[in-house]
Write a structure and sequence with these properties.
11 strands, globular, 10-stranded antiparallel β-barrel, Lipocalin, mainly beta
Length: 174
């Protein structure tokens, strides 16, 4: 059951974010889109509740402009899990958010939202396997010109505590 939950979590694309909020969050988020454009090799480690690595897979993410400095179109693929998804990554100056939406084979639409210039995004609440409500949180860190890491955590108690979900290392390939 845990592996199924991990696969569901992987369907949700890790959300790049900037390290610290800035006084000009919109400019920082536009720069994040610019930095994310291109092709990435990604190693994903699924984590057990104690933080140990339960499984590792390799895949790729690709992002290209639809509307320069506003909207990236993307996709991801993880061949060993026969998984792929379509992605839109965009900024909304009016709503003061940066968002990524993703949909995979199952047709479930995931929306990951954070403040402009922020470092963390969360999904909308969803039904957990145990019948309660869960939510995912993504944080980007260790950002360099050609790589970054992403941490995904989940909560089933309204955010009182967060458990490890996965750790991803993105390396630019083009």
């Amino acid at each position: 059951m845990r592996l199924l939950f991990q696969i569901i979590l992987l369907l949700i694309v890790s959300c790049p974010a900037v390290a610290e909020p800035t006084t000009d969050g919109f400019a920082a988020s536009v720069q994040e889109l610019r930095d994310s454009a291109g092709n990435w090799a990604v190693v994903t480690e699924f984590l057990a509740d104690d933080g140990s690595v339960a499984n590792t897979v390799e895949g790729n993410y690709r992002f290209k402009w639809v509307i320069e400095d506003r909207v990236l179109q993307g996709s991801n693929s993880i061949p060993s899990l026969d998984m792929s998804s379509g992605i839109l990554f965009y900024v909304s100056e009016e709503r003061k958010v940066i968002e990524m939406v993703s949909v995979g084979k199952d047709g479930k639409l995931w929306v990951m939202t954070g403040p402009l210039g922020g470092d963390t995004r969360t999904t909308q609440p969803f039904a957990s396997q145990g019948g309660g409500e869960a939510q995912l949180r993504f944080t980007r860190f260790n950002v360099t010109e050609n790589s970054f890491e992403s941490r995904m955590e989940y909560t089933e108690d309204g955010g009182s505590s967060w458990k490890p979900g996965n750790h991803q290392v993105f390396t630019r390939i083009e």
